[in-house]
Amino acid sequence: MNHAIKLACLGKYTTSPNPNVGCVIVKNNNIVGEGWHVKAGSNHAEINALKMAGYKSNGATAYITMEPCNHYGKTPPCCKELIKAGIKKVIIPTLDPNPKISGRGILELKKNGVIVETGLLEEKAKKINKGFFKRMKKGMPFVQLKLATSIDGKTALANGKSKWITSVTSRNDVQNFRMLNDAILSTSKTILSDNSKLVIKKEKFSNKKILISTNKHIKINIPQPLRIIIDSKNRITPMYNLFNYKSEIWLIRLKKDNNIWPKHVKQIILNSNNKIIDLVKLMYMFGKTNINNLWVESGALLAGSLIKLKLVDELILYVAPKILGNLSKSSFIIPEIRTISEGYKFKFDNVKYIGSDLRMILTPKY
């Protein structure tokens, strides 16, 4: 199962909106087939493993990182293929959280005489699909909020300049996180001040090689994340660097403007009674449009609002060994807290040196 989970992770850049899934087929204590889901719309992990195993699948055991599907989508049901191949036993860590599938795959297998065991390495298997699980269960994506600060918690000087607080190494590390997410969320204020493109740097990460065994690599093309900008006051125009790169962009607004926008730009109107974008409503919209994982790069106002509304699942904090002073801008804009016990609490999950900076990954204690 550990090997199946490693295989599943090979699809982490390309399977969305589908989950990462790996499959290992074992017969007489030998691996006879293995596979993973490479890309949405392509063969599922089970099919790839069965193709490798061939006739050896008959009477074998399949270790699959998630319950196999039992419905026709872009590909045929994996359960039927496992049964047809003569698999005698299926071991899975967890049911598929998709309500259209959950439990039905297991039922189909059992009806056809296949032994099914569940629960092996369950938490580890769920962790590799945390965005998919959250979207299926709560209707929202898994949200990672990234901030880069000085050691006194400042994100920009009083004049708004923030380039560059952290090191080149930290900024390259951010590129890795961008690759793992379906979409990047920012605000018009951030674009107006930084004129950022919010893209993966192609010269660094296109045709990325991933190791699939001790001495074998494959090349994959990593898609650019969807770029989403909250622009409730229609302040952004087509002149900014953001629009020079022709990958999809959504402008989240309260009303349309009269600008002529490139074809890769879409204005999405969210109705609101308060003349501000409803962030909870926005997250549910992202869930309905199949966004599993959302990366947020923004200023203090959106960061504070997301924390206050308990919409952040992980805080990715890069801390540079610099002091920027009292007049510089703070990381969050949050209403005054009167007692220590009312403060928003977090748990350190991982702390690591990234070049000269510290990278801290924290989870909120909501």
From TrEMBL:
The active site is at 46 (proton donor). Zn(2+) binds at residues 44, 69, 78. NADP(+) binds at residues 148, 164, 190, 194, 232, 299-305. Keywords: Hydrolase, Metal-binding, Multifunctional enzyme, NADP, Oxidoreductase, Riboflavin biosynthesis, Zinc. Binds 1 zinc ion. Gene3D superfamilies: Cytidine Deaminase, domain 2, Dihydrofolate Reductase, subunit A. Converts 2,5-diamino-6-(ribosylamino)-4(3h)-pyrimidinone 5'-phosphate into 5-amino-6-(ribosylamino)-2,4(1h,3h)-pyrimidinedione 5'-phosphate. This is Riboflavin biosynthesis protein RibD. The lineage of its organism: Bacteria, Pseudomonadati, Pseudomonadota, Gammaproteobacteria, Enterobacterales. The gene is ribD.
